[in-house]
Amino acid sequence: MTTRRKFLKGGAAASIVFCSCGLLRSAHAQQPTRQTLPVSVNGRRVKTIDVHAHCQIREAGALLGNDAGKIQVPPVRGAEEAFVNLDQRLAAMDAQAVDMEVLSINPFWYGRDRELAGKIVQIQNEKLAELCASKPDRFAAFASLTLQAPDLAVKELETAVRKQGLKGAAIGGMVEGLPFSDPKFHPVWAKAEELGVPLFIHPQGIAELNKHLAGNGWLSNLVAYPTETSIALAHLIFEGTFDRFPGLKIIAAHGGGYLPSYADRADHACLVSPANCNPDIKLKKRPTEYLKQIYFDSLVFTPEAIRHLAAQVGASQLVLGSDYPYPWQLQPVDHIFACTSLSDEEKADILGLTAAKLINVQA
Predict the structure, then answer these.
(1) Which is it for strands 100-104 and 139-141: parallel, antiparallel or unpaired?
(2) Which residues pair with 139 in a beta bridge?
(3) How far apart are CA 293 and CA 179, in angstroms?
(4) Residue 211 — very low, low, confident or very high, per pLDDT cuts 50/70/90?
(5) 3-state SS of the chain?
(6) Arithmetic mean of pLDDT, 335-350
(7) Which of 55, 215, 241, 292 is such that its CA lies 20 to 30 A from the CA of 99?
């Protein structure tokens, strides 16, 4: 189904491929009241921005040799089509009523040596920048970072934002088992804070849990992914990282994992067991208050889940997310319109106004 098209001179970005992933067919099978572009909320035009959309770049994967196939094309619907066909992706976005996607690439290079990982990141950031420059009204992107080498990651982030026009960076949930609260990563968070750009946390899985997750149900994704995000956010809160970097902007994929759904327990843990908490770390706020300075994508599937998430963290902290081209949520805009718990103003913010401010694009 996927075809290629050279859409820049010399075919510079022709190696990036998108997909329709059945969206164009399934979209037309839905009820006729679905949202279409341009989207309006109570008569107000809203630029819809999907902050959680993926792609892959063949040249970067090619550096992995025989490992490229299983990493870039896992046995998941939509994976093969994560390589770009521009016409198909734009048509799919139109069918979703999405004006702009903020593209990201899940970090498969953290376990590679510095030189190889740096080459992968360089290629990806260059190709992402070329694509975004070719369609600046439809695409933005989060940079890749060689996060296992923080000194290199700082330089990559600086280049990505100041020279390549990228809007922040996409990171995993940890690096080789090391939590993001480790002082090793402080220079990266300091640079992101200085540049005023968000970091999009997307989990990769927890290797230590794999033996417990075998069997039916794809539990490595269903259970481990939201767990990893919850752990990452909890470390940033409890180790004082958010206090150290109060201007750090974090976007958490999949609605932030489990943490927002059971957030109030965080306020009691150290009261119940002081022995399991560090007396030298004195947080400036209650743990649940830090959730209100994190942004969460809307990929939680039901209006009731959106209602609960907004109640926990504030509707002002929610942004649109689909996980495209993977078919988790094929109508992300309709999903927000279906939320009767949200006001029109809150819907407009979630659909795009909040994201526009976060990534510094015109709403």
Answers:
(1) parallel
(2) 101
(3) 19
(4) very high
(5) CCCCCCCCHHHCCCCECCCCCCHHHHHHHCCCCCCCCCEEECCEEECCEEEEEECCEHHHHHCCHHHHHHHHCCCCCCCHHHCCCHHHHHHHHHHHCCCEEEEECCCCCCCCCHHHHHHHHHHHHHHHHHHHHHCCCCEEECECCCCCCHHHHHHHHHHHHHCCCCCCEEECCCECCECCCCHHHHHHHHHHHHHCCEEEECCCCCHHHHHHCCCCCCHHHHCHHHHHHHHHHHHHHHCCHHHHCCCCEEEECHHHCCHHHHHHHHHCHHHHCHHHCCCCCCCCCCHHHHHHHEEEECCCCCHHHHHHHHHHHCHHHEECCCCECCCCCCCHHHHHHCCCCCCHHHHHHHHHHHHHHHHCCCC
(6) 98
(7) 292
State the pLDDT at residue 9: 41
pTM above 0.90, yes or no: yes
Other C-beta atoms closer than 10 Å to the C-beta of 176 total: 10
Task: Specify the amino acid at residue 158.
Answer: E
Candidates 37, 51, 45; CA nearest to 93 is: 37
- Domains of the chain plus CATH, in order, are 21-359 (3.20.20.140)
CB under 8 Å to 48, separation ≥6 — which residues? 37, 39, 97, 98, 99, 100, 320, 333, 351, 352
Average pLDDT across the chain, whole number = 92
Residue 5: pLDDT over 60: no
Residue 2 has pLDDT above 90, yes or no: no
pLDDT digits (tens, 9 = 90+) for 45-81: 999 999 999 999 999 999 999 999 999 999 999 998 8
